[in-house]
Each structure stands twice: as C-alpha cells, then as structure tokens.
C-alpha cells in the first residue's frame, strides 16, 4: 500500500423514516460485493461498479419502495460517498485524477474524476428510455450527484452515444468503478498529497 499504510475502508449506518442502510466500502479490495437492496437494477449496477473497481462493498438496505425507489437509491449514494471520503483518509500518495472510457456494445461512457475535496457534478447523458424495467433512469443522476457531494469529489459523467438504455447505464457504472480505482490508487512518486495547496 506504499506510503499509505492504513486500511482504506469505512462503514456507515443510516436510518431514517424512509430507509435503513448499512454499508461497508473498501478501496483496496478484490472486487467482492455482497449487496441486498429492494432495487434489483441498482444491485446489478453496484455489483458491476465493485467488480470493475476492485473494491469490496457490502450493502444491506431497506427502503420505502412502495412509494418508489428514489429514497433508497439516493441514500445509498450518500452512504457510498461518505464511506469513500472516510476510507481515503489524508489522501497522501493518491493519483487523484482519472479519465476512463468504457464501451458496452453500442454505448460509450466516459467518467472523469478529481478527488478534489470540491464536490461538483456534471452529467451529459440522454437515455432513449425513461425506465429500465421498473427502474427510473433519472435515479442514476440522483445516485451519482449525491455520491459526488458526500465524497467531495469532482465527477463528470458523459455518455457519448448509445441506443440501449441498460447498456448506457451499465457502461457508466463500469467506468465509474475503473476511474475511481485509478484515482484512488497510490503513486509511489507522490510525496504527501498531489496538490500545490498541500491539502486536499
């Protein structure tokens, strides 16, 4: 683990009138996920994210899906962002930046990330369909925005083209995993944090 010897992992519990979530996230993992939520499509996307980022992720979530999936998806995004921020610690030695393209058949997604301590989110995606099964595609934006906000990262997500909404979203989550893996990786050439400010 280079000059960052602590275990880069964190856990969070979040219980509201709408959701009950327990989430553990490990940066330096092996791509193992244990995900149980009431939103099957999100389970699938988080599994892809974990596998392609080589993280470890455990999510146990129950929410008010009789209303809709919104609160569950949003709150998991919040919890994932919080655990990433905590797991990163002082951020010493990290690469900080990453830009990753991932194709999924006819779709091409790009995720660009800066672990900046400045939360910002740009989203350039137009899906052909408003739903994938019972899952509302607008919740992808909600999840990613809350993740970026709580993780305090700058996150740009662009789907350059695609025809199948499932493929487009899948490419986004795979690219997010791979970009985050690269940006959080330790670069032995980096002394301290990769910023002229001396702090991130």
Short descriptors:
200 residues, alpha+beta, Ribosomal Protein S5, domain 2, four-stranded mixed β-sheet
Give me the secondary-structure topology.
Elements: E1 9-15, E2 19-26, E3 32-36, H1 40-53, E4 56-63, H2 70-88, E5 97-104, E6 107-114, E7 120-124, E8 131-132, E9 135-136, H3 138-151, E10 154-161, H4 165-184
Parallel strand pairs: 3-4, 7-10
Antiparallel strand pairs: 1-2, 2-4, 5-6, 6-10, 8-9
Detailed description of the structure:
This protein has helices at 40-53, 70-88, 138-151, 165-184; strands at 9-15, 19-26, 32-36, 56-63, 97-104, 107-114, 120-124, 131-132, 135-136, 154-161. It is 34% helix and 30% strand. The chain has one domain: Imidazole glycerol phosphate dehydratase, domain 1 (Ribosomal Protein S5, domain 2, 2-Layer Sandwich). It has 200 residues and is an alpha+beta fold. It contains four helices and ten strands. Helix 1 (40-53) packs parallel to helix 4 and helix 2 runs parallel beside helix 3. The two termini are 19 Å apart. A four-stranded mixed β-sheet has the order 1-2-4-3, covered by helices on one side.
């Amino acid at each position: 683990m280079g000059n960052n010897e602590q275990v880069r992992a964190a856990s969070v519990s979040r219980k509201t009138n709408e959701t009950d979530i327990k989430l553990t996230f490990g940066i330096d993992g092996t791509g193992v996920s244990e995900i149980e939520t009431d939103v099957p499509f999100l389970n699938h996307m988080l599994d892809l994210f974990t596998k392609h980022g080589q993280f470890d992720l455990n999510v146990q979530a129950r929410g008010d899906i009789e209303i809709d999936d919104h609160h569950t998806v949003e709150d998991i995004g919040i919890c994932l962002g919080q655990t990433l921020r905590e797991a990163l610690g002082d951020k010493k030695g990290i690469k900080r930046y990453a830009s990753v393209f991932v194709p999924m058949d006819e779709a091409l997604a790009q995720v660009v990330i800066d672990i900046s301590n400045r939360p910002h989110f740009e989203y350039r995606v137009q899906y052909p369909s408003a739903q994938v099964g019972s899952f509302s595609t607008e919740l992808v934006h909600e999840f990613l925005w809350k993740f970026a906000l709580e993780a305090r990262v700058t996150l740009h997500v662009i789907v350059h083209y695609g025809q199948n909404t499932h493929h487009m979203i899948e490419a986004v989550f795979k690219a997010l995993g791979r970009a985050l893996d690269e940006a959080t990786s330790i670069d032995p050439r980096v002394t301290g944090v990769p910023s002229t400010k001396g702090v991130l």
